[in-house]
Automatic annotation (TrEMBL):
PANTHER family referenced in this protein's UniProt entry, alphabetically: LONG-CHAIN-FATTY-ACID--COA LIGASE, NONRIBOSOMAL PEPTIDE SYNTHASE PES1 (EUROFUNG)-RELATED
Highest taxon, organism lineage: Bacteria
Domain AMP-dependent synthetase/ligase span(s) in chain numbering: 9-379
TM stretches of this protein: none
Pfam families, per database record: AMP-binding, AMP-binding_C
Organism of origin: Gordonia alkaliphila
Domain AMP-binding enzyme C-terminal: 444-520
Full protein name: Acyl-CoA synthetase
Length: 535
């Protein structure tokens, strides 16, 4: 059978109706209440012409409405389009146009203002659902051609589940990144999404094989309270959202990534697990915990998990110093591959994945590499996306087919097979620095820099070098009040854990390292910052 995400949610809601599905800023909502609300949202969308395969853009911060809108559109087979709420006008125009968005759901006045500027360039757009007050600027831009609907009208709709039949082949769309160019829409079928990004509804054991099994097991599974620190528009956050919905868990959301609020509310919300995106979120959270360690009640917290970015050992060590029994998990995956599993550091500092049938290493001809130590591209197999929306050229490059007919996902991550059968992750090939023939992977140097007591954040990029072709350049943000270190001091620190050729030869200190709201690195900006100093 094939799973549909809306039916998965409804199955869980029927199994545990009285459990809380969501805690938002301290307020709880049960599965039964959320199911009724999402059915009403689905009817609201349908009443205004939205149906199967229509793209609906979520131009929203974290909120109850964000979750309800996402689940509601899935009930009628509409396709979600995640929108980075920090996008500029050209980026917004691109994503709304590229996705063929038929509807947009928006809230904040500043977002409405930017949306108003691009409406005349969106031929597929038919209706805008507004949470809260509609600005005069948006009213004027919409005119008589684009419908404006008060999202609160969902309260007047039916709670019945009288929706069209579902088959598991409905589309789920995730737009990725955008720090090195405009984002790409990754196309997942619901069934593939259920089986890979959300681990078949059971990340702790065998995948569920039927809705009946799912409902039965959820009723017997204890509710876990899981805080998503990342914005819901981030791929890792959506994976976690659906993973814990399929387990009958309780999602905890804050409006924004606010370390003070997240840490301060752990006791109030009885938070058990926290999802972060690498050091960009891990570092400010651990700093807040350190600052308030004596006053905090962390008794409920037992796990911190990271996904979407490498999590350095130095930040992990600081968490365990605060609470030694914390379980720290580093999830490896991507929008184009789903959840690949847990990555860990071995005694030699290598990032390793245990042996798995969901991953292999291939050469440039997409032939499998079995020789231990031979570097190639890490390829994901099994339930993978259909490709990139409206981009057959990039689809063919990222989702090639091997000679035996196996479709794989190749994202540019470099690695090799270890003698024990595990996969060693080196880093993204596009961020590989070739310095005099030696290859340096940015993530490894960044992890070393994050261990420096005066470094708040760091990105590593190539800078031009007349002798070696490229040199390793570190773009660094310092801790508040820290004295600016010299290049020699940074080099001496890095030599403790890195080979000499990997040590930065250029140091650029900036006020703030630029990242997306989800913590993704902006390497294009960092490279420009390093080259400006070199010039």
């Amino acid at each position: 059978m094939k799973f549909n995400l809306a039916t998965v949610f409804e199955t869980v809601a029927d199994a545990v109706p009285d459990r809380d599905v969501l805690t938002y800023e301290g307020i709880g909502i049960t599965y039964a209440a959320m199911d009724a609300q999402t059915s009403q949202v689905a009817h609201l969308l349908a009443a205004h012409g939205i149906g199967r395969d229509d793209k609906v853009a979520l131009y929203l911060k974290n909120s109850v409405e964000h979750v309800a809108a996402l689940l509601g559109m899935l009930k009628i087979g509409a396709v979600p389009v995640n929108v980075n709420y920090r996008y500029t006008e050209p980026e917004l125009e691109y994503i709304f146009d590229n996705s063929d968005s038929a509807a947009i759901i928006v809230e904040l006045p500043e977002h409405q203002a930017l949306l108003a500027k691009v409406l005349d360039k969106l031929p597929e757009l038919r209706v805008i659902f507004v949470i809260g007050e509609v600005t005069e600027e948006l009213k004027a831009a919409a005119g008589d051609t684009i419908g404006l609907v008060d999202f609160a009208d969902w309260t007047e709709q039916s709670t019945e589940r009288d929706f069209p039949e579902r088959n598991g082949e409905e589309l789920y769309l995730i737009y990725t990144g955008g720090t090195t160019g405009y984002p790409k829409g990754v196309m997942w079928h619901h069934d593939d999404f259920f089986r890979k990004p959300i681990s078949g509804g059971n990340p702790y054991g065998p995948a569920r094989e039927s809705y009946e099994e799912l409902g039965r097991e959820v009723a017997n599974f204890p509710s876990l309270a899981f805080l998503i620190a990342a914005p819901l528009m981030h791929g890792a956050a959506s994976y976690s959202l659906f993973t814990f919905l399929s387990l009958g868990g309780r999602l905890i959301l804050e409006r924004d990534f606010d370390p003070e609020a997240i840490v301060g509310n752990i006791a109030r919300d009885q938070t058990q697990m926290i999802l972060i995106v690498g050091d960009a979120m891990g570092m400010p959270l651990v700093e807040e915990m350190e600052r308030r360690q004596e006053e905090l009640d962390l008794s409920s917290l037992f796990m911190i998990a990271s996904g979407g970015a490498i999590w350095s050992q130095s930040v992990r060590d600081r968490f365990t110093k605060i609470k030694p029994e914390l379980v720290l998990r580093d999830n490896f995956g991507a929008s184009e591959s789903g959840n690949d599993g847990e990555i860990s550091l071995d005694e030699n500092g290598n990032l390793k994945m245990p042996p798995t049938d969901r991953m292999m290493v291939v050469n440039e001809k997409f032939e499998r590499i079995t020789t231990p130590g031979e570097v190639g591209y890490i390829a994901r197999v099994g339930n993978i996306p259909q490709g990139y929306y409206k981009d057959p050229e990039k689809t063919a490059k990222t989702f090639p087919t091997m000679a035996d007919g196996t479709r794989i996902s190749v994202l540019g991550d470099m690695g090799y097979v270890h003698e024990d059968g595990s996969t060693v992750f080196l880093g993204r090939g596009s961020q590989c620095i070739n310095t005099g023939g030696e290859k340096v992977y940015a993530e490894e140097v960044e992890a070393a820099l994050h261990g420096h007591p005066d470094v708040a954040d760091a990105l590593v990029v190539p800078a031009p070098d007349p002798k070696y072709g490229q040199r390793v350049a570190a773009v660094v943000q310092l801790q508040p009040g820290a004295a600016e270190p010299t290049l020699e001091e940074i080099q001496e620190f890095c030599r403790q854990t890195l080979a000499r050729y990997k040590v930065p030869r250029t140091l650029v200190v900036v006020d703030e390292v630029r990242r997306t709201p989800a913590g993704k690195a902006d390497y294009r900006w960092a490279k420009a910052a390093a080259e400006a100093v070199e010039a």
